[in-house]
């Protein structure tokens, strides 16, 4: 590929092949970064540069350009969190029966090619989607704070803990000492609930 800097990597046939690492032709947005012969490759096969990334003379740094691009975005907040589930009825039994969430009837699911449901969780929503889950069900960290999770504010943690204990749902407390608990749904999706005042 013209304009690309590559390195040699062993191919399956035993011969060395060039692996594209850096393509100057595709850096019109980010500028041309310094990639001298002494710049090492990281484990993903890309050259590492000092942070913040430096550009050649006449080009802005990545940080400068990204500030200009993101500066005009008026973020309003998180609209919903999408969760995969194996069995919609089982998930609804957990989210409605244990947590007490209500379905949003204004978000029908008939237009989508898979089963699902939208549930209110405060001013935001959880979107349950009955689809194959690529994540493993076993071998996940016992403490959800060490796994992918999303956090929801609650007025008080104790009523939630009482519901979890009554339903036999395992949970762990925040390791930082905050009034927060972590727990998982039937598909091992992890939720964190932290005690806080409403922000909307």
Automatic annotation (TrEMBL):
CDD domains: VOC_like (cd07245)
PROSITE patterns: VOC
Domain VOC, chain residue ranges per copy: 77-196
One of the Pfam families matching this protein, by short name: Glyoxalase
Protein name from the UniProt record: VOC domain-containing protein
Species for this entry: Gonium pectorale (Green alga)
Species lineage: Eukaryota, Viridiplantae, Chlorophyta, core chlorophytes, Chlorophyceae
